Amino acid sequence: CEVRQYTFNISYFSGSPDGVKKDKILGINNQYPGPTLEANQGDILEITVINNIIDGQNTSIHWHGISQRNGSLFEDGTSQISQCPLPAGGNSQVYRFVVEEAGTFWYHSHHFSQYTEGLFGALIVHANKEVYTYDDELTITLSDWYHQTAHENEKWHISCTSRGVPPYPNSGLMNGMGRFRCNATTLNNEGRTYECDTKKQMRPVFHLDYDKTYRIRLVNAAAVAAFNFSIDGHPLQTIEVDGVDVKESPDVIADIVPIAAGQRYSFLFKCGGGVSENSAIINEDGIGEEIKKETYLIRAIVRKESLMLLPGKNINEHTLALMINVTGVIECHKDKESGRKMETSENFSCDQNVPELPEEASTVQWDNDLGRGPLVVPNHFFFFFPAPKSDDKKRVVLDDMNLHPWDGSQAPPTFDKEFVVEVHFEEDRWNVRRGSFNNSPFVLPQHKPLLMTLLDNEPIPDSVFPLEIDDGDVVQVVINNPFYGPHPFHLHGHHFWVVGSGMWGQGNYTDSDGALKWNLTTNGVKRDTVLVQEKSWVVIRFKADNPGVWLFHCHIDWHNLSGMSLVFIEAKEKVRENWKVSEEVKRVCDLHKYINATL
Ligand code: C2O
Fold this sequence. Notes:
About 10% of the residues lie in helices and about 35% in strands.
């Protein structure tokens, strides 16, 4: 076991991730996305975060998917829940925790919507003994990108004009690179002019050896967009979902993998492996000679139902989706000389010559796959979905309900405590439409982090929608989503079993008919972020074996911000008996007394 140290210097810098210059990108060590953290299972990660954001913004960093067991509950990095936010002005905070679980994780700011401005990165934990064999690996992050600042977006979203609809992203990025359609209608940026430089538009290129097997780790770090991920000509074998190794089976091999905000997957990939007839080698070098290199397109095509649009706006989801689609390239080198080593950043380069993705290719309709997308939309309201093209139907889409944990573990067959929550949008008294559970928009505690409130034996405010659970309970949560728009829900502190889920349009879960549609032993996918389709439901289970205060929220960052969150108060006596506020969090809270910082 080793201590792995990293320093994050957080500040704004300027750049053009999609060709449009943005003065305020929230970067780590002037890098966006932030550096990939790597550790072996059992190591201690020690990250020193220094807040140098110029305009006095606080910050905090959350380690998404890391359970923070055995007392590291103060390392969860959730502003006003597990810690006071870290004030600007060069103040620092050290996060220190053991990484017990292996897999693909990510980290991001958990303070307002800072991660939408760039404050995130991948976190990879290598298993002591990986269950699958591969020669090397690469990490792909997907995100959506905004030309407005996070603050402008927040202001717009938390106002009576947004009607609960998230701000529109301007483009999609793969590993921080993308292509804004410079000549496209500028959505809600009407009236602004952009410096849009196509020469700055780049695309990630991964150089792979033809003979090697790779693990591709995929992270969706978007604020709102869900994507259909694929690599031309190559079916993908899923081996991991959200940090849980997955059993080998024909059902986990698919051409297209849907991924919602907050989720991760790993795939086994071999150049030329299983190249199918719709294989699209986009170019081959050495015409007339021996082919030394094959090039394949990586596509992340936005799932249109993940975009919610304002009625009356002069844009439809089709146009918006086109803007967010993003591509990368895999180069398969047959010649050992031209194939590069994977260990260093040399395996990776930027391609400046980004051809337009033909409309054809970027607009394929997959809304209807898995029977979970809207078929007919009643009116002009939010959505408009053309029918799928016939040849797309041949492509297999991963059904995540087919992913079973590699170790054969199964969901608990019964539960001790059940909560039924319904996703709602509620008008508050200022006519702002807020995300909520059961009509009660979550409000972040203002004066003290919730964990401290708990340790100080003070009452937990109702405004955080607290759900109390006892030590050792098997907890079942029924999430009903009767309205428009899918929501990816993420639980801190745990991985949960998805024990049942409805098809699109089925409406709410009810015990009697729901029971017919699920199966505890075969429907067992275990993860930390689950997508609840619109007009549908999901049921999850987890065991209360990690005392603490854990957020559960929609990972559409704007919905989290407006109130679609709640907290589990887990085994509160145990928390009080066993843990106290960490010295580091105490110190960060104390900083607020001396600095004129606002929470
Ligand atoms: Cu990745 Cu509370 O979030």
